[in-house]
Amino acid sequence: MRQSPNRIWFIVLLGAALVAIAGLGRFMSGQDRIPWRDDFAAAGRESVAVHKPVFAYFTAAWCEPCQSLRHTTWADAGVAKALSAYVPVKIDIDAHPDLAAHYAPDAIPTFVVLKEDGSVVKSETGALMPEEFLTWLNG
Whole-model pTM? Predict the structure, then answer.
């Protein structure tokens, strides 16, 4: 039996809509792959114990570019792999204004790589896409 063209188009459009909704759901869920620590002092102690530098990420709940990183850079498998060589710590500047003033005075998001002794190796401000972030991190 032959199906009507309207019914076929309905099925095609319904399938496309379901695929789009599934993709949007994945995007909105924030597939952050980074095992963030939330205690800066503890991250410093862990850095010394495991002989890895600290990767400090300064952020805030109200920072839209910071929130976009959850869906882009922090969701990237290559970025997650690269950050496994660090002790990653996420620092909310509103909860820790002292740390923000010391390490991220200009703007957020700010990324800071610290040696085991706490000295700054390098820093960057602004949301970076995964490829840009990896270039900066590995550069």
Answer: 0.78
